[in-house]
Amino acid sequence: MTNSNRYFFDIIPIDYHCSEEQAIEILEKFPAPELPDGNTYFDLQDQQEGNSIKQRLLLNEYEVRLTRTNKQFLKMSFSNNAGMIQAKMWDNQGAIDRYLPLLEAHTIFEVEGVVDVFNGNKSITVNRLTAQHEDVNPFALLPYTKMDIPNLTVELFSYLHELSEPYQSIAIAAMEHFWNDFRLAPAAKGYHHNYLGGLLKHTIGLMRITRYICTIEKDHVEAIIKLIQVVEKAYKKEIYQSYKTENDQSNPLVWRDTIDHLYKMLQGLIACKEETPPYDLLITAILYHDIGKLLEYDHAGLSFHPFKFLFPTADHKILSDRKQAGIAMDSLGVMVGHIPYGMLLLTKIIETEKIELPVAAIHELIHCILCHHGLPEWGSAVRAPQTLSGYLIHIVDYLDSRFENTELVK
């Protein structure tokens, strides 16, 4: 199997080689999840303001809030295959006290209400909620990637099987332990790749860009400059389209405020010009950079194996008592975050699998995980990248997360 599609504004070739026998072997060991066949869904964006709706939806989160006049209302978030749906319910005739026990006990509801629009954003003003009693297929009521997951799986493992040792063992061991969750996981709750399969797609996106920078173009600095020039062109097009549509705020500019940041990171990268991009280390770090999201987020269909892997002697009863629903922040994971969890999973794999690796290489891998957000105000665990690999993983993560929001097909 040879793939010759292209990525990132058709600039980056998706070029990997895998025989049919190898693909079958990969999918037997790392099967893709089953998706619903011919599933239809309600899309709030297709509805007009004032429309009455009655839909079966999956509850993500809810909380009681106060209006500016100190009146209570319920703020809720639901999901279906089309994506996240924001909703609210006013406290009319004791509605909050009446519905809170149902929200605490159930995950699937028949939602009746009216479509509302505020600042260009559509939501539902809920009049009635009816709890539904059924098991949840996570792909039936959650948004999921429309990409071919078996093909993404084969592509991922084709890249991992190219790695030299011990990096290949570090990468494959993570998938052997966490594949059932990794293949399902979203990469975010709201900003980018916020759907089932999003983490898999995002991870592969970083690998595609890294392969282009490190193995396809002759010079990694020239490659990054080419990519920035592509972004500049896309940004100009966005600005012009925004001008033509005047005050349309429903489509914010994806590439706003990105150009200066990319050039700043490029200057930091150039200061590391004595280094050579450590390709195998980078691909391994990319696999782990967001793997901590298996603990940071929760959703229907997610196991708690990563928690049990990290903390085998702990009492896990609080996990087994969970009510899982839509994509939400995990109540435990949010206290730590995916960046520290990624570091913990990496070091635990190396220790558990008894993989020998120079201590400097371990620190380089950890540094890539800790700095991939680039800046402390964006969640980076270090002040700034300190190595070539640190700058590279931030740049490719930054590019892929924003490029995702330019694509029509998830």
UniProtKB/TrEMBL annotation:
InterPro entries: HD/PDEase_dom, HD_domain, YhaM_exoribonuc/phosphodiest. One of its GO terms (molecular function) is hydrolase activity. It holds the Pfam family HD. One of its GO terms (biological process) is rRNA 3'-end processing. Residues 259-400 form the HD domain. SUPFAM superfamilies: HD-domain/PDEase-like. This is HD domain-containing protein. Keywords: Hydrolase. It comes from the Bacteria. The keyword Kinase does not apply. Coiled coil: none annotated. It comes from Natronobacillus azotifigens.
